[in-house]
Amino acid sequence: MKFLRYILFPVVPIYYLVTWTRNKLYDFGWKKSESYNFPLICVGNLSVGGTGKSPMIEYLIRLLKADYKIATLSRGYKRETNGFKLANVSDTAKTLGDEPFQFYNKFGSDILVAVDADRQNGIEKLRNLGNKPEVVLLDDAFQHRKVKAGFNILLSTYNDLYCKDFVLPTGNLREPKSGAKRANIIVVTKCPENLSDEEKAQIKKQLNPEIYQMVVFSSINYSKNVFSKTKQIGLNHLKPFTLVTGIANPNPLIQYLKSNNLEFEHLNFKDHHSFSNKEIDELAQLDCILTTEKDYMRLKDETKLQEKLYYLPIEVSIDQADVFNNQILSFVSS
């Protein structure tokens, strides 16, 4: 795969030019972006793959839900429905997509969860509801330039900074690095917990943020317990298990489990993998399964797995949480 990407390097300037030109058309107003008179926060990235958007959306929900009516709006990647859909008790990962279903499964009636590939239409539908949201969180919409969010949070992983990458197809960037200028805050995600001030300063220098941009660092906090549909047990009490992942980058989770001296094998599937009946039957032969919360959304209703399937929740920890929170709260209340 990497070899093929190197072969395709001559395509990089073409992809760069197309995406750069598209952004300039929006920047100069020749292509229209819709602005809104209520708080609209976008969480996204420049690269393909997992940068931690879902945990960040959940962080914002926890920060805001006590004081504001919150809605999340996602594309609903790989769902089996079309158009605008507002989550309800009959929905599954198949009707919403795994990440929106995770939001709904976790927060329930505390928030509104909607999916629509057309973000403009999704926002309009949400605002026309009788219990319309006061704040909308846009999940993975940084490149959706038809909507102009009032506040943009750009994520980039510690081990794969966008400033060191190329655009597709050789690299992982969806658009040129200059797109980072649209961000209000840049969050370096999945950092080691003991990241030194010197390394933070070095990373900031590499990112070279604009004067108006704040850079913060976040790490993953793993729960000490794992959960099934009916119970929870301590992670360290989990018997030898098979780790099943269908996420973009399972390496941080693998390293965490190894650091806890846990005994496991790993079955790795592509991001957002839809498990076939045959694969479910094969998983059912395993004694104990641990998966991520996102993957659990796609597997939780498989009756063959319910007695052996556990997931490990995560949350985001931000090193300058007070400053970060105040920026968000100031924007929402303005």
Automatic annotation (TrEMBL):
<keyword id="KW-0547">Nucleotide-binding</keyword>
<keyword id="KW-0418">Kinase</keyword>
<comment type="similarity">
    <text>Belongs to the LpxK family.</text>
</comment>
<dbReference type="InterPro" id="IPR027417">
    <property type="entry name" value="P-loop_NTPase"/>
</dbReference>
<dbReference type="GO" id="GO:0005524">
    <property type="term" value="F:ATP binding"/>
</dbReference>
<keyword id="KW-0441">Lipid A biosynthesis</keyword>
<keyword id="KW-0067">ATP-binding</keyword>
<comment type="function">
    <text>Transfers the gamma-phosphate of ATP to the 4'-position of a tetraacyldisaccharide 1-phosphate intermediate (termed DS-1-P) to form tetraacyldisaccharide 1,4'-bis-phosphate (lipid IVA).</text>
</comment>
<dbReference type="InterPro" id="IPR003758">
    <property type="entry name" value="LpxK"/>
</dbReference>
<keyword id="KW-0443">Lipid metabolism</keyword>
<keyword id="KW-0444">Lipid biosynthesis</keyword>
<dbReference type="Pfam" id="PF02606">
    <property type="entry name" value="LpxK"/>
</dbReference>
<dbReference type="GO" id="GO:0005886">
    <property type="term" value="C:plasma membrane"/>
</dbReference>
<comment type="pathway">
    <text>Glycolipid biosynthesis; lipid IV(A) biosynthesis; lipid IV(A) from (3R)-3-hydroxytetradecanoyl-[acyl-carrier-protein] and UDP-N-acetyl-alpha-D-glucosamine: step 6/6.</text>
</comment>
<keyword id="KW-0808">Transferase</keyword>
<dbReference type="GO" id="GO:0009029">
    <property type="term" value="F:lipid-A 4'-kinase activity"/>
</dbReference>
<protein>
    <recommendedName>
        <fullName>Tetraacyldisaccharide 4'-kinase</fullName>
        <ecNumber>2.7.1.130</ecNumber>
    </recommendedName>
</protein>
<dbReference type="GO" id="GO:0009245">
    <property type="term" value="P:lipid A biosynthetic process"/>
</dbReference>
